[in-house]
Write a structure and sequence with these properties.
The protein has 530 residues and is of the alpha+beta class. 33% of the residues lie in helices and 27% in strands. It binds S-adenosyl-L-homocysteine.
Length: 530
C-alpha cells in the first residue's frame, strides 16, 4: 500500500480504522496510523507510517518514531536504543510530536467517544502511558494533516514580490490534494503564506495571503465585500460591470460580473471551484441578486482539469437581461454570450472614444455593437462588422431598441477591410477591437503580423483628421509592442499619427502593480493628421 503522503491524500478513516464503526469489542482495538515527518526541510519525507494496534504503537513505536524524525537515518537504531528513547520522550512531550508528527487517525478514549458522538468533536487521542511519563505524555492531537506545499527560493521571491502565481517548477514538495487551501512553506520550512493548490495547472499555487495569517472563506468573503465596495465608489455609469477581477482584487481565479440584478461567476482554478458554494452564499448575502449563473465554460478551466459548464447557482436567470451603459440599453444573454455576456472591460474606452467620434464610423470586431452604438450616436453613418452571426443579430436588435442606425455585417475583418479599400470607401472614425491574437508567447510573431495588417488597412481607410481607436487584449502584446506595431503600420500607410489618449481596461478591472498579467487590455485613441 503506498503511504498516505505518497498518495498525497489524507487517509480516509475507514482505511485505517477498519471495523471501528461497529459497536463491538473490536472498537477498543482500533488501528492507528501515525506519520512522522523529519524536521529538516531537506529531509521532509516519511520516516515511518504504521498500521498498528494502538497500544503497541503508543507504548513502543511512537517514541522511536519521534526520535527517528529528528534523525531519519536512525530508525533502526532508535527502536532498540533506550537512551535515545528517553531523550525522545522530552522532545515528544515538549515539541516534537506536536510539531512534526501527524496523527492520521487515533483512538478516541471512552469519554471522548461520547464527545465525538454527541458533539461531533474530532478527538484524536494518542493514549501514551501516563504514569511512566510524568503524566505529561498524554496527548490530544489537534494537528490534523494540514495540506502544505514547499516552494523553491525562486518561488518565495515571487511570493514576497506580491505575485500570486507560483509555477509548478517552483514547487519542491506538495502534500495536498487538488483544490486544497494549503500552507506554503519556504525551503527552510517556514510558513510564508496560504494558497489555492492545483494538481494540474502549470500555475500550481495561487497565493491568497502572505505570512502566517490563515486563509479561509471568511477572508474571501471580506475581499469580495471590499471589491464590491470599491465598485460602488467608482460611480460607474452602467448597470453592468465587473465586481471581482480575480488577481486584481486578490481573489485569484475568481471573476464576478454584475448585470443589473443578476450575477455571473467564474471559478477558474480547482481551489476557487471547490469554494463555489461558499462564494455563492457570500454573494447572495452581500448583494441579494435575483439570480446567479456560473459561466464556467472558458477554455482556461481545461488547464485545471475542470469541466466546462454553465449552471444556474441561485434564483432564476432570464434568457436575456437588459442592462444600460452610458444611456444605451443592451439585451445580454448571460448563458451563451461571449465572455460573461458583454465586454465590460471596454466600457470606459467606449465612453472616451465617443468624445472624438464623428462622420462615417466603421466598428471592426463589433460583437454586440458596444462601440458601434456608443460612438454611432454621434456619427452620420455606422458600419459594424463581426464574424459571428449571433453577434451581428444582437447588434441589429440593440441598434433598433436604441433607435440608432447601424449597418451590421457578418464578415471577416481582414477581408472586409481589403474589400472596402477596393471599393474606395473612406471613414472618419474606425475602431479595431480584435480578439486576443496572441494567446501565448509562441503566437506573438503571428499576432504581430495580424495587428499590423488591420492597423495598416484601417489607417489607409481613414480620412485625414480621422480617429483610429485601436486595441489589443493580448497580454503577450504589451503596450510598447502595440505602439511599435501601430507605428510600423503608420509608416507603411504613409500616415502621420498622434496619440490622443493611451488607455487600458476599465477601472473595475484593476491592474495589480507587480503582476503584469493583470494588465492585458490596451487601447490607443489616435488621430491621423492631414
Ligand atoms: N468591440 C466589442 C468586443 C469585441 S470582441 C465590444 O466592445 O463589445 C472580439 C470580436 O471579434 C468577437 O465578437 C468575435 O466574434 C469577433 N471576431 C473574431 N475574429 C474575427 C474576424 N476575423 N473578423 C471579424 N470578427 C472577428
Amino acid at each position: 500500500m503506498p503511504s498516505a503522503l505518497e498518495r498525497r491524500v489524507e487517509p480516509q478513516r475507514e482505511n485505517l480504522v477498519g471495523e471501528s464503526e461497529c459497536d463491538d469489542a473490536a472498537a477498543h482495538r482500533e488501528d492507528v496510523g501515525i506519520v512522522v515527518q523529519a524536521r529538516q526541510p531537506r529531509r521532509v519525507e516519511i520516516v515511518a507510517e504504521r498500521r498498528a494496534d494502538a497500544d503497541d504503537l503508543v507504548r513502543r513505536d511512537l517514541l522511536a518514531l519521534a526520535a527517528a524524525a529528528e534523525d531519519d537515518a536512525a530508525v533502526g537504531l532508535a527502536l532498540g536504543d533506550r537512551t535515545r528513547d528517553r531523550k525522545a520522550d522530552r522532545r515528544v512531550v515538549d515539541r516534537r510530536f506536536a510539531v512534526g508528527a501527524v496523527v492520521v487517525d487515533g483512538v478516541p478514549e471512552a469519554r471522548d467517544r461520547l464527545l465525538e458522538m454527541f458533539f461531533q468533536r474530532e478527538t484524536r487521542v494518542v493514549g501514551a502511558d501516563r504514569d511512566s511519563h510524568d503524566g505529561r505524555l498524554y496527548y490530544k492531537d489537534h494537528y490534523r494533516m494540514i495540506p502544505s506545499v514547499v516552494i523553491s527560493a525562486r518561488g518565495e521571491d515571487r511570493l514576497r514580490g506580491g505575485h500570486p502565481w507560483i509555477y509548478r517548477a517552483d514547487v519542491a514538495d506538495a502534500r495536498a490534494a487538488a483544490g486544497d487551501i494549503v500552507v506554503v512553506k519556504n525551503p527552510r520550512g517556514q510558513i510564508v503564506g496560504s494558497a489555492l493548490y492545483s494538481d494540474r495547472s502549470q500555475i500550481a499555487l495561487r497565493v491568497l495571503v502572505e505570512g502566517e495569517q490563515p486563509a479561509d472563506i471568511s477572508l474571501i468573503r471580506r475581499r469580495i465585500e471590499a471589491a464590491a465596495a470599491f465598485r460602488t465608489s467608482l460611480d460607474i455609469d452602467a448597470t453592468a460591470y465587473r465586481l471581482v477581477h480575480g488577481e486584481g482584487d486578490r481573489l485569484p481565479s475568481l471573476i464576478v460580473d454584475r448585470y443589473g440584478d443578476y450575477l455571473v461567476v467564474q471559478t477558474l482554478s480547482q481551489g476557487m471551484d471547490r469554494l463555489m458554494p461558499e462564494i455563492v452564499a457570500a454573494l447572495t448575502d452581500l448583494l441579494h441578486p435575483r439570480g446567479i449563473v456560473a459561466r464556467n465554460d472558458p477554455r482556461a478551466r481545461t488547464f485545471e482539469g475542470l469541466e466546462q459548464r454553465v449552471d444556474i447557482m441561485a434564483g432564476e436567470v432570464p434568457e436575456t437581461v437588459r442592462v444600460t451603459e452610458a444611456g444605451i440599453g443592451y439585451d445580454v444573454d448571460l448563458r451563451h454570450g461571449q465572455k460573461t455576456g458583454l465586454f465590460l472591460d471596454q466600457r470606459e474606452n467606449r465612453m472616451a472614444a465617443a468624445l472624438y467620434a464623428g462622420g462615417r464610423l466603421l466598428d471592426c470586431f463589433s460583437y454586440n455593437g458596444g462601440f458601434a452604438l456608443a460612438l454611432g450616436r454621434k456619427c452620420r453613418e455606422t458600419i459594424a462588422i463581426d464574424v459571428s452571426e449571433d453577434a451581428i443579430a444582437r447588434v441589429r436588435q440593440n441598434a433598433a431598441s436604441n433607435g440608432i442606425a447601424v449597418d451590421a455585417r457578418v464578415g471577416n475583418v481582414f477581408d472586409e477591410l481589403r474589400g472596402l479599400d477596393r471599393l474606395g470607401e473612406r471613414f472618419d472614425t474606425i475602431v479595431l477591437d480584435p480578439p486576443a491574437f496572441a494567446k501565448n508567447k509562441a503566437a506573438v510573431a503571428n499576432a504581430r503580423a495580424g495587428y499590423k495588417e488591420i492597423n495598416l488597412r484601417a489607417l489607409k481607410l481613414l480620412n485625414p483628421g480621422g480617429v483610429l481607436v485601436t486595441c489589443s487584449c493580448s497580454y503577450h502584446v504589451n503596450e510598447a509592442l502595440l505602439a511599435e506595431i501601430v507605428y510600423e503600420a503608420a509608416v507603411d500607410a504613409r500616415a502621420h499619427v498622434t496619440v490622443v489618449e493611451k488607455r487600458m481596461q476599465g477601472r473595475d478591472h484593476p491592474v495589480m502593480l507587480g503582476v503584469p498579467e493583470t494588465y492585458y487590455l490596451k487601447c490607443f485613441i489616435l488621430r491621423k493628421l492631414a
